[in-house]
């Protein structure tokens, strides 16, 4: 988890430093070196459609300015290279305070094979991502299933 003030001189609202720092630590701790090819599904805090490409870049799935390319190409859809929010995510339901925890729960259901109609086949590694609050916190987790 990382946080930064909501407003300060020089804050990058599109590529927040705390988000970059948080995910860098997460990837390092999890041994992830190529997130786009090592994460099977991502539950990301996307309250508005333009947040998806923004977070794809901030989380290291795409280079700066290229997140939209993954979305436009269908790579983030169910059946795509990196399904993002197969649950519908925050765009479908945003209970303030619980929405971040729901991203983790959805990631866990994917890992456990319990996501029902939005289950992605063969999920072994999932990302859960939360964002928000007055201090702009960024929280992320990696869930994995042991290989049989």
Poorly predicted runs of 5 or more residues: none
- Helix count equals 6
Strand content: 5-15%
> What oligomeric state do the depicted chains represent?
single chain
Task: Give helix and strand order, one letter per element, not per position.
Answer: EHHEHHHHEE
How would you describe the shape?
Answer: globular
The SS-based structural class is alpha+beta
Mind describing the biggest β-sheet? 4 strands, mixed
Strand order of the largest sheet: 1-4-3-2
Query: For the CA atoms, what is the radius of gyration?
Result: 14 Å
User: What's the number of extended β-strand segments?
Assistant: 4
Q: What's the average pLDDT? A: 88
Helix content: 25-40%
Q: End-to-end distance, in Å?
A: 31 Å
Characterise this structure.
- The chain is α+β, with helices and mostly antiparallel strands and 148 residues long.
- The protein contains 6 helices and 4 strands.
- A 4-stranded mixed sheet has the order 1-4-3-2, sandwiched between helices.
- Strand 3 (125-132) and strand 4 form a beta hairpin.
- The termini are far apart.
- The mean pLDDT is 88.
Q: Can you tag this structure with a few keywords?
A:
4 strands, alpha+beta, 4-stranded mixed β-sheet, globular, 148 residues
Give the SSE layout:
Layout: E1 2-3, H1 17-30, H2 35-38, E2 41-43, H3 51-58, H4 67-72, H5 89-92, H6 99-112, E3 125-132, E4 137-144
Parallel strand pairs: 2-3
Antiparallel strand pairs: 1-4, 3-4
């Amino acid at each position: 988890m990382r946080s930064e003030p909501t407003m300060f001189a020089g804050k990058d609202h599109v590529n927040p430093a705390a988000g970059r720092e948080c995910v860098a630590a997460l990837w390092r701790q999890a041994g992830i070196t190529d997130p786009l090819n090592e994460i099977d599904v991502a539950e990301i805090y996307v309250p508005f459609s333009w947040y998806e490409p923004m977070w794809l870049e901030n989380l290291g799935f795409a280079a700066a300015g290229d997140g939209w390319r993954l979305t436009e190409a269908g790579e983030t859809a169910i059946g795509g290279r990196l399904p993002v929010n197969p649950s519908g995510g925050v765009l479908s339901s945003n209970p303030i305070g619980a929405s971040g925890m729901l991203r983790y729960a959805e990631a866990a259901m994917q890992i456990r094979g319990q996501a029902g109609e939005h289950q992605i086949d063969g999920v072994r590694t999932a990302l859960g991502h939360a964002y928000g609050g007055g201090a702009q916190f960024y929280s992320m987790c990696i869930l994995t299933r042991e290989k049989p």
